[in-house]
Amino acid sequence: MAEEINTINSDKWIDSYADYLFNYAISRVNNSDLAKDLVQDTFFAGLKSAKNFQGKSTERTWLVSILKRKIIDYYRKINSNKGKAEVRMNFYDDGENEGNWLEERVPQSWDNQSEKNIESQELRDQIEVCIDNLPEKYAMVFRMKTIQEFETEEICKELAITASNLWVIIHRARTQLRKCMEDNWFNN
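The structure corresponding to this sequence follows.
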């Protein structure tokens, strides 16, 4: 019996997965150009490591796992202190306070962080209230897909619904959440 060879069809990646991967990336980096670059890097890395694809998952799942690593690498890179140039910032030109600060040791702004934290908590609470006011199935699907980040296939199998039904539910849930937030948060 011949050994089955798992092959990928990279010629169809852009048409089949680019939008999904872009939406996945943009929701995590909130920068369109960066999201496009990360997707491009994902496709390139996929091509380079195509021989490692074992077929234990779908191509999309495999590409998403590559993209996740690209996003993690991006955040590690920007949060790393390694390789940062010491940039000196001059705050005072004369007098006893004359001197420079290293950029990474500059005091943080003294804005009222506690007010921001309270407002963020109030916003989270209002979103939870709005989600709780959704029909039970809408709330469950919305939480699974958007908050817990379950894959579409997993949700469909768990709830015995079709993918198109799932997306209709997500759309309706978002519409109702938007209305609830507009009525209870943004118009106050």
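Residues 1-5, 82-93, 100-107 have pLDDT under 50 and may be disordered.
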